[in-house]
Amino acid sequence: MHPAIEVVGVEKRFGQFTALAGVSLQVQQGEFFALLGPNGAGKTTLISALAGLTRVNAGSLKVMGLDVVDQYQEARKALGIVPQEIVFDPFFSVRETLRFQAGYFGIARGAVLDSWIDELLAKLSLSDKADNNMRQLSGGMKRRVLVAQALVHRPPVIVLDEPTAGVDVELRQTLWGFIRELNAKGHTILLTTHYLEEAQQLCSRIAMMKQGRIVAMDTTEHLLNAFSERVLRVKIDGELSVALLQARAKQDGGWHFFPIYDYDEVETRLAQLRASGVHITNLEVAEPDLEEVFVKLMHK
User: Fold this and answer.
1) Which tens digit of pLDDT belongs to each residue from 74-108?
2) Strand residue runs (E) in 182-274
3) DSSP 69-124
4) Residues linked to residue 298 through DSSP beta bridges, in sequence order
5) Are residues 105 and 233 in the same domain?
6) Structural domain range at position 81
């Protein structure tokens, strides 16, 4: 079975600036995959190349085994993209926008299409806005329509470029519930986001980009285990013993941080604190955190 997305040795230059410097990755069919990196890392350039909006200087890109240059029509049909920018036609209603979008992919109007549009509108909580002009919608509602546009031709691969940027909690919950449902049905999801907790919760595998290169790519679990750790955080009244000061990883904002590798160590460490004569006023056990992984990799 061919990968849903295959990128091999892709390079892209804009004049003297190198946006992509030999990027290679594979996303398997049915994966929920995150592509992370700071602004300017090359994420959107790579997505633009997948969509055929940018021609690369070297390398190849395939969607569902279809080359995005040599088999561009079939490759476009296999891909649905939710762009980072909100773009809409101010002359059409929501339903008309989706009908036109389907038409770009050769899908004729009729009962089958209208039924699917109704389902999309319901899943994205847009049913009551179906006949509203796009200009009348809030920013969050417009973003929901962008998601529906990306899905209206039923692509097997869905790319979400910062889909929850600047939107409210309700939209996030609605969107992620629907996307999880699509992923469970076999759709491949490629996500870029600056909300790292979303990537940690949703994605089984993650690639991190920096200055046009992939600097890490592994399962979410392996990245967390390799670059982050579980930590016992305590606030105390009193002074730590010399042994506890040596065991402490750091102190920040009144919190003392002690690395732990399994939960059995929590009670051991608390017993040591009590034995040293300090009074524990607050404590937390922090799980491995993708934000910590991200910061460490970006500063290597």
Assistant:
1) 999 999 999 988 888 888 999 999 999 999 999 98
2) 188-192, 205-210, 213-219, 230-237, 250-252, 255-260
3) TTTHHHHHHTEEEE-SS----TTSBHHHHHHHHHHHTTPPPSHHHHHHHHHHHHHT
4) none
5) no
6) 5-225
Domain count, the chain: 2
- Residues 141 and 257 occupy one common structural domain: no
CATH code of residue 272: 3.30.70
- Same-domain status, 51 and 184: yes
Cα 250 from Cα 256, distance rounded (Å) = 6
Nearest to 76 by CA among 113, 105, 109: 105
Would you give the DSSP letter of residue 59?
A: E
Q: 8 falls in which pLDDT band (50, 70, 90)?
A: very high
Mean pLDDT confidence for 220-228: 83
Nearest to 295 by CA among 41, 37, 42, 21: 37
Beta sheet of 230-237, edge-to-edge order: 250-252, 255-260, 230-237, 279-286
Are the C-beta atoms of residues 45 and 57 closer than 8 Å to each other? no
Q: Give yes or no: residues 237 and 96 share one domain.
A: no
What is the rounded distance in angstroms from the CA atom of residue 291 to the CA atom of residue 196?
6
Question: What gap in Å lies between CA 34 and CA 17, rounded to an integer?
Answer: 25
Residues 22-43 have pLDDT tens digits of 999 999 999 999 999 999 999 9
